[in-house]
Structure formats: structure tokens, C-alpha cells
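Service request form, structural biology core

Requester: graduate student, group of Dr. S.
Request type: structure prediction, single chain
Budget code: on file
Notes: please return the result as C-alpha cells.

Sequence provided:
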Amino acid sequence: MFRAFRRRPSWPSRSPPVEPYAHGLLDVGDGNRVYWETSGSPDGKAALCVHGGPGGGGRRGSRRMFDPEVYKIVLFDQRGCGESLPHASDPAVSLVHNTTEHLIADMERLREHLGIERWLLYGGSWGSTLILAYAERHPDRVSEIVIVGVTMTRPEETDWLYRGVGRLLPGPWEAFRDALPAADRDGNLVAAYNRLLNSPDDAVRAKAARDWCAWEDAVIAHEALGKPGQYSDKPDDALMAFVRICAHYFADDAWLEDGQLLRDAHRLAGIPAVLIHGRLDLGSPLKTAWELSKAWPDAELRVIDDSGHTGSPSMQDAILESTERFGKNGR
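Core staff response, request fulfilled:
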């Protein structure tokens, strides 16, 4: 099902700020401890917030997309970022045990740790890739799904974001490309950045991280209703972990077979979902959300006309309406 979405003022604004009533560090093996927290109603309908990036942990605003009187809201920081340990900003921290498979296992371990039978999954951008990978592996553990900014991290999507969209932004893209050594400029740019981000030279790593975020910010600069400039607007450690983990995942196509998540969408049959996507999203064009909605009959696609990748008031309302509706489904 598809429909365009425009803002309806009658829908509620975000829930007021809510603080966690429990939190901790879960030992997930390989020397990693994953930060988690729960807020809202301890006996409510469980919802897991899956952040983007990869490596974009530490933000807590997604709590407010849920009614705290209805939901048990679970947040976690994926390996290496946010409050999880060890932190990928430290160049000595290996990312060899930080892959999509590891994150799927971490989510399942967290579900078991919290004693949750099934949960709603909510997230966007990279978070949508991880949600789909988890749900296709464990469909019996998922009650509903709300995805904002649909991605499946296929090679064609990564190539578009770091090369193809440069047709629309030639100046910033050339700066992104030319920040690399000359020998790397005609090859795989993401892989080349990944090498710089693991350089033993602090200055090389820091410059590569800033150059990467400058490009990401250029791609969202037109999103006046969203959060232009949000990628560079991070503390130094968070920025370094974010970029280092991003490049690590994207250089390896997130360890997913090309088209795997779309191919296996049949495993999501029976899971109600809302796919919310901004029509103005340059970095993650609507095509991916459209293809997924066609392969997943239980998913409703809502296209937000005034939104890009970083959202808008209309997109926020679409999220709230979805979580409100699913909150009435019971546990």
C-alpha cells in the first residue's frame, strides 16, 4: 500500500522527555559491552529503537516517538559507539568483531536479557538495514516494524551516496574525492577512506573523518525542515567512531549478499509495517523503499513530500501516528 503523507495538525506532538528507569552494559562477547536502557512503562508493549549510522549511537530522542504510558521503550548503542565499550574512536579498538551478524546476535541477546517475547522495531537509515536483517532472521520475535528512511545497504545504494549523487553536488563531491590520495580517486572511495580512518597517524584519521562528514552534510544541506549539518555536529570522539564504523561497514557491503534483504522479504510476511520515506531524500532515493513495499504486502509505504533524510514535522507526525496505532495492537 502506498500513499503520500501531508501533515495533519490534529495528531499529537512528540511525547514529553522521559528518562530511563533501568540501564546497563550487556556483555556480548569479543570484549564488547553494549549499552542499553529502558524507559516508559515496565509492563508496556516492548519497542526497540535501532539507531542509524552505522555508528550513530548516543542519541536518545527516539524515546519521544512512543507514548511512555503504552510502551516499554528499549534503546541500545550498537558496538563501538555511544556509551557502548570499547569505543571505536580509539584507533587501537579493532572492528573485526563489529559486523551485521554481530549486531543481529546482540539484539537477540538483549531481548533475552530483558525477558521480552516480541518487540516492535523502530529505526531508520542504517537502522532500517539492521531491522530488516534481524526481522528476516527472527520474524517470530517481531510484532510490528516502523522504518524511517529505508535503506538496504546494497552496493548500488552505497555507490549512489558516495559517487552517483555527486552529479547533483559536483563541487562538494570533488572535494570529498580529492581529499583522498591521487591514486585512490578513481577507485572505491569508501574503501580508500576506510584505509585513512585506520591510519596510525592521528592527523590523517581526523582529517578523513572531517572530510567524510563534510560530504554527508552537503547531501542533506537542502533539508531546511530537518537537520542540515547534523553529521559534523558531533563531539570529536563520537564523530570519529561514527565515520570509522560507517566506512568499515560500507566498504564491506555490510557483509550482506547483494539484494539479500529484498530477496528474503518474504520472511517478513504477517508482520505489519509502515515504511516512511522523504521524497526529498537525495542520499537514499525513494526507489529502495518502493521496491521493498512491493515485495512486502504487509508494509504500508508513506511518502513525505516535504521531507528529506533528516525528517520534517510531517515525517514526525507520520511516525507518531504509526506508533500510536501499533500501540493499540496490544503486546
